[in-house]
Amino acid sequence: MAAVAFDGGMAEGHCSLGLVRAFFDWDWPAASAEFDQAWALDPAYWVTPFWHGLVLCATGRFDEAEEQIARGLALEPQSPVVMHGAALNATMAGRYGLALARCRRGCRTIRIIFCCGFRWGWCMGLTGRGAEAIEELEKAVELSGRRVSFVACSLAHAVAAAGHRETAWRCCGRCWPMRGARLWIRLGSR
Predict the structure, then answer these.
(1) For residue range 93-112, what is the model confidence (pLDDT) as tens digits?
(2) What pTM value is reported for the model?
(3) What range defines the domain where residue 43 resides?
(4) 124 located within any domain
(5) C-alpha span between 111 and 85 (Å, rounded)
(6) What angle do CA 83, 175, 28 make, to 5 degrees?
(7) What's the CATH number where 112 sits?
């Protein structure tokens, strides 16, 4: 907020304030207004449509999110970060084929980004391709340095879905509470 108060003509400040309005205040209309202001100030700043798209995705407005993400992709077509956002929106909208294509493109651009591998594995699991999901999620866990709990828990979930209960139980230690609870439900009680 200080950046906007200091210089209201900076797209970066309005974009950051849009994130605050969305994910801390839960004020979606105010967030969109900040993103719109940022875009009006600097339509070459790819970060604005990227985050605006993810905020719209979080509110279930997938078609509008797609429009924003397309703006980001037009500005940064090789960005694995923007491609990950595009894959996330497609996944959440239930467009798994599109999500997989975007993951493939994002992972081809720069393989060290674990997010694309994570999203790829997640989509594989959602489309019933368990063995491929496990393989991709194992890579994503390694690429994340084994420090990102939602990736580890997604691997545990895929392993559980494939019927490997004991292996899944061993993976549970790295899962944060919400995903751990979902995994617990998937595995059932011992």
Answers:
(1) 999 989 888 887 776 655 55
(2) 0.75
(3) 2-140
(4) yes
(5) 16
(6) 50
(7) 1.25.40.10
